[in-house]
Amino acid sequence: ITIRREDYQPYPFLIPTIELEFELSAERTQVRSRLVVERRKDVLISSDLILNGEDLTLVSLELNGVVLSQTQYTLTEATLTVHNVPDRAELVIVGTCQPAQNTSLSGLYVSGKHLFTQCEPQGFRRITWFADRPDVMSIYRVTLRASRSEFPLLLSNGNLLQQRELEAGRHEAQWHDPFAKPSYLFAVVAGDFVCREHHTRTASGREVLLQVYSDVGTEDQTEWAMESLERALRWDETRFGLELDLDRFMIVAARDFNMGAMENKGLNIFNAAYVLANPNTATDGNFQAIESVIGHEYFHNWTGNRVTCRDWFELSLKEGLTVFRDQEFTADMMAAGLPATEAASARAVQRIDDVMGLRLSQYPEDRGPMAHPIRPESYQEISNFYTATVYSKGAEVIRMMHTLLGEQAFRAGMDEYFRRHDGQAVTCDDFINAMQWALQQTAPQKNLDVFRHWYRQAGTPRVSVQLQHDPVAKRCTVTLTQDCPAVGVEKASPIVKQPFHIPVTLGLLDDTGKSLSPQVTLELKEASQTWVFDNISTRPTPSLLRNFSAPVLIDYAYQDQELALLSAHDDNAFTRWEAGQEIASRKMIALAQAWRQHAKFEELDPLLAKSWSASLLAKDLDAGYRARLLSIPPSHAVIERMAHMDPLAVLEVRTRIREQLGTTHAATLLNTYQANLTPGQYSPSPGPAGKRALKNLALTYLMASKHPEAANLTQTQFRHATNMTDRMAAFTALIHDGSSELNAPAATQFYEDWQHDQLVVDKWFSTLASSPRTGVNELTGLMAHPAFTMRNPNRVRAVVFAFCMSNTRGFHAQDGQGYHFWSDQVLALDAINPEIAARLARVGDQWARFIPEVSQRLHAQLERIATHPTLSRNTLEIVSKALSL
Ligand code: ARG
Ligand code: ZN
């Protein structure tokens, strides 16, 4: 069944308060729920009260103190309907659930020896019957009871009211959350943890307690998380004037978790991978990801919790906005304390990484069977819509408003949004209205009418650029034309797509790379528009879409030497990087086509060789930025641009290019390696992290080219590394590019050294699973390893997802075994954890765009999945959309 946005109906009752009493145990937990329900006078539907409930056993039901007989209510697999409810009533429901049997990790579940909840989007109904939708907001009072020895800590949202001992070794804790919230923000944690605490004050001087809970034995891995949390607190105060509103803020690390983390009010629950880190166990990338996810969840306290979503179609209201906020947080942290030029390049590095992520995950989504607007119009299973589109493209849409309004007006719009909607469940329109109000304070003639189309239309718009120059009139005209054909579900609908409002930030350079006119942001709002630039005496090279000012594709017939000019001289760090990537991508596509036709690798293109070596020699540039300039575009990004995607051909040319560059520039690469060592104490900050990125990139080129010194250098680094970033870089190079004498001992050694640390074991698994040496047979061997389990999502991601998504050679092996392996795993996972299975099923999304031999085989496997007799709604939606293309 399909749920449609236009079918929204308000819930006919208010539920101002809910009191929950838990008798917690892994096998059988009893929940007693006391609801106060009030009929809404303004909404008249039936008199029945319909509550959601799944996988629950009903024990008893009372309405206003009277036990209900079976004629007074109706219980189904998914709902509990209470008939003839008076205008104001008290309902007491007692039921049970079975956390130890819950492998979906939605609702109340067991992880290790602990109990955790995950309620977003629809997990609360797996704990007790309730109006499990975000527009029903209640004040929660929660009593938790459990065995003290099994569950010494009992946590829920808000403030701890009291704790006491009970008989028979049991104890109790009572929590009260003073803020009304939807059920998806409810949380319970029970278990035995170590806790890092920090007392601090908010900007207005209120004392608050910050806590990070994690497994016993990990107390030396939570310092960075706590520091990140405090930085997030300070940043939201200074940049947005938003303070923590509770006396206590808790983060708990869970080993088994479907996603990254969850912003439950005052009690954030995190995938342990985004909490635990120290220099010995975590890489620079891990440190940065932790800071960013901690920021993200913390920022949800305002954008998501204080102002929440009316229904799940509005998910991007909180997610797009909060991703934008976490990206800005990371950029500000990266730039903090640096001199202006270094700060700009640190920001550019962050922007490059965010844009790469968008292009690798969202662009393909936007042209595949799951394409949807950032505010979807329909869905079958909402868990399938926690997508790159809702999150990353959603953040780009917010960023465009920030670009159009400017920092000051954007901030005024945010203030106005909270002034209007604090405590409410609202829509994306409400957000845009607040922003439009702020825009019109200084520019009354402007509006966001056309801009709103970003919320209604899917697909990545293509902007073609035409540039004309008249040397006599010294006039340059730039014409932008946009186009966005119907994608995904749009194809079946008769709606004509409207133009988007697209900010295109542009510079014009002369042939020495100097700016010919000040940078401008053109606002394209119609199908086609033209702008005129005067006093331009020579034909300029346009620097287009600076800072990636809009999530679009740019079509401009750049000459090779224009790209070379931009890649050497553009003073916008983003477009400078982009020009180098464009050169490499164009050449890679041409080489891949040639490879496919006559299995021959043509000489490395001189333009690519030249621009690459210029970046290698540009020692005045920041190391982290230089590492981005010197990275050959990932195969996936290149494949994505081909009319008929040929993964093995692209992999082949990418390997050859890296080999050749490594061979030709060995001496400089060795110098670069030596010049970027980071001796002394480890710090994850952008300076040293950038140096490590550059140094380790140099090492991979040397390894790829089989340079005689490379193996030694890599082995030495592997053995003597003083941090996990360097150790992992060397380990990956040995496994992926080393000879067979090198890689087996490295694999054994690494496992022996780190088998006690689950997150490092995940790194071990994923390095092996993504190695070009690993085919289905080797992978099956890996899955027989005693440390492998299908029950732990992080492990499944490290092995199964890493193989299917990051091991081009293994997954696309010509015998087709990789595809068969994939469908096996989708089906196996579907019986355990539908949300994870559906995510893996999306590997098949792009089947129709591959070269025919790949396409046919993927299609056959999709059909195999689709015709499986029992399939979750999650996976069914993904494969049926893929097949209905
Ligand atoms: N709101 C969480 C976050 O972005 C994600 C939770 C998603 N949950 C899920 N079951 N898909 O921060
Ligand atoms: Zn989020």
UniProtKB/TrEMBL annotation:
GO terms for molecular function: alanyl aminopeptidase activity; metallopeptidase activity; zinc ion binding. Residues 560-883 form the Peptidase M1 alanyl aminopeptidase C-terminal domain. Transmembrane segments: none annotated. It holds the Pfam family Peptidase_M1. Its EC number is 3.4.11.2. InterPro entries: Aminopeptidase_N-like_N, Aminopeptidase_N-like_N_sf, PepN_Ig-like_sf, Peptidase_M1, Peptidase_M1_dom, Peptidase_M1_pepN, Peptidase_M1_pepN_C, Peptidase_M1_pepN_C_sf. The keyword NADP does not apply. CDD domains: M1_APN. Keywords: Aminopeptidase, Hydrolase, Metal-binding, Metalloprotease, Protease, Zinc. Coiled coil: none annotated. Residues 102-185 form the Aminopeptidase N-like N-terminal domain. SUPFAM superfamilies: Leukotriene A4 hydrolase N-terminal domain (SSF63737), Metalloproteases ('zincins'), catalytic domain (SSF55486). Its cofactor is Zn(2+). The keyword Oxidoreductase does not apply. Belongs to the peptidase M1 family. This is Aminopeptidase N. The gene is pepN.
